[in-house]
Design goal:
This protein is of the alpha+beta class. The protein is built from ten helices and twelve strands. A five-stranded antiparallel beta sheet has the order 2-1-5-4-3, with helices on both faces. β4 and β5 form a beta hairpin. The longest helix is centred in the middle third of the chain and has 18 residues.
Length: about 300
């Protein structure tokens, strides 16, 4: 067994993701099929990315590899691999368009590319795009739509040991806004909250209306510290908004509860939501306009 194979044996053997190990800029030094039936190491090792993949897909991988190497950080994107017209992929047995969450990271003089098949997850997202799964007032997804996406995201996080966080957002003193300014003003607050969050969230994040004045954001590839930072950005953004309706204006604040998957095999969608709800309750009981989260582990 070569030194390279020894170095990555544990990673490649235990990971369900497909793994490519590159020598810059695009030579495949090693690979593991993971759960991909079409990826055969003997057919890929020693070849260039553009000799295997469509030109646009190979160019994206090279660009991500360069960024990972120069920045020294993990670069993540969602990419679509269309094998049509690419002889090598068709010969290997890939015969349908596949969506991947791709992560590139630098390891000494090599680049590790992890490809996680998210085709099923994206299909669930598309299924959730119908009007029956949209909130009629705000236009964002409703509770019915987010549940299958949450469960699939938790399952993927458990399977690949990937960080995944949720953020529960509740408008402080919403009843007071409705009583003092009108229900129409309350509706405007909800609508502008969603507009602001949709404009600032990442493409991979999933926003839904969870209850009357409560929203939830699902955040894949997001460890606890990043989720807390995202919560603070959301809190400050919404605090700065001024909602106007019929010559009147109102400012509002939110309380936020953040929870992140622990890696515990007993973790479920319900336990994750439960912790986010508990953290939200602490934020509300502490006066609102704050973010509460799981505690960091030493």
């Amino acid at each position: 067994m070569s030194q390279l194979q020894c170095r990555y044996e544990g990673l490649l053997g235990a990971c369900g993701e497909s793994i490519l190990i590159l020598e810059m800029p695009s030579t495949i030094l090693g690979c593991s099929a993971g759960d991909s039936q079409w990826l055969k190491p003997d057919a890929l090792i020693g070849r260039q990315l553009d000799a295997i993949f469509p030109e646009s897909f190979a160019a994206e991988l090279v660009s991500m590899a360069v960024q990972a190497s120069s920045r020294g950080e993990v670069i993540t994107k969602e990419l679509e691999l269309n094998p049509k017209g690419t002889a090598v992929l068709e010969q290997l047995g890939l015969n349908q368009i596949t969506s991947y969450r791709v992560r590139c990271l630098s390891a000494e003089d090599e680049i590790i590319v992890a490809l996680q098949d998210i085709t099923e997850l994206k299909s669930l997202r598309r299924m959730s795009s119908g009007q029956t799964q949209r909130d009629t007032l705000t236009g964002c997804f409703n509770r019915r739509a987010f549940r299958p996406v949450l469960e699939q995201s938790v399952a993927l996080g458990m399977r690949y040991d990937a960080p995944f966080s949720v953020m529960l957002i509740d408008i402080d003193r919403m009843g007071q806004i409705n009583d003092e300014h009108s229900m129409d003003m309350g509706d405007k607050v909800l609508q502008q909250l969603v507009t602001a969050l949709e404009a600032t969230k990442r493409t991979s994040d999933f926003l839904a209306r969870y209850n009357e004045d409560e929203f939830i954001m699902l955040m894949p590839e997001t460890p606890l510290n990043n989720a807390i930072s995202a919560g603070e950005r959301v809190r400050k953004l919404l605090e700065s908004l001024q909602v106007k309706h019929e010559g009147r204006a109102v400012n509002f604040t939110v309380s936020i509860g953040v929870a992140t998957m622990t890696g515990d095999q007993a973790e479920t969608a319900d336990t994750l939501l439960g912790r986010a709800g508990q953290n939200l309750f602490v934020a509300q009981e502490s006066g609102g306009n704050r973010v509460e989260s799981d505690e960091f582990e030493d």
